């Protein structure tokens, strides 16, 4: 079984990140979150900080393209990162990182890709679009990241039925609960995979 040194990228409250850190603390996955990178000082950094996990805020503002890339590469190398997880990260990774970590970057999306993905499809926009389109099912998707938003190979999905009076807010809540379980499951699949 493999054990990865994980870097998590976040832009928000980091509840998915927390679920993965907790899975690691509970021994449900053997990989460890070694580094958390955010694009601004968001509340999701509090939990890893409280556990002494290294965190960094790296924003494109005030940095050249190369400085932005080098700041990330330096941290990823220093922590010997071999798996990146995007957990509510709203920016695009530099293509150099996507290429260097080919098949080693995961993202979680709150709908059943390939539907309801792409630019602008994040947060409540996704759940509103799902309900407005009259879908019967929704649910989160964990997929590999390539250079196009929400496009990479799908690793894991879980379907739930949408109720007749379902609101976007309620759907978000139900999907998020499942996200907290399947993101760790997806990491476990990679740990157990023969290569
Ligand atoms: C989740 O809904 C995830 O699917 C999406 O962004 C949200 C992040 O939530 N990519 P959190 O910051 O993990 O609470």
In summary, what is this structure?
The chain is an alpha/beta fold and 195 residues long.
Spatial ordering of strands, largest sheet: 3-2-1-4-5-7-8
Low-confidence stretches: none
Q: Can you tell me the CATH architecture?
A: 3-Layer(aba) Sandwich
| CATH classification, class level | Alpha Beta
Distance between the termini: 11 Å
Please provide a written account of the structure.
This protein is an alpha/beta fold. The chain has a single domain, classed as Rossmann fold, CATH 3.40.50.170. The protein contains 6 helices and 9 strands. Strands 3-2-1-4-5-7-8 form a 7-stranded mixed sheet, with helices on both faces. A two-stranded antiparallel sheet has the order 6-9. Helix 1 runs parallel beside helix 6 and helix 5 crosses helix 6. The longest helix has 25 residues. The radius of gyration is 16 Å and the shape is globular.
List keywords for this structure.
single chain, 9 strands, alpha/beta, Rossmann fold, 36% helix, seven-stranded mixed beta sheet, 195 residues, 6 helices, two-stranded antiparallel sheet, binds 5-O-phosphono-beta-D-ribofuranosylamine
SSE diagram, text form:
Blueprint (H helix, E strand, L loop, with lengths): L4 E6 L4 H11 L6 E7 L7 H5 L3 E4 L7 H14 L4 E4 L8 H6 L4 E5 L14 H9 L4 E2 L2 E4 L9 E4 L2 E2 L6 H25 L3
Parallel strand pairs: 1-2, 1-4, 2-3, 4-5
Antiparallel strand pairs: 5-7, 6-9, 7-8
5-O-phosphono-beta-D-ribofuranosylamine (GRF) binds next to helix 1, strand 5 and helix 6.
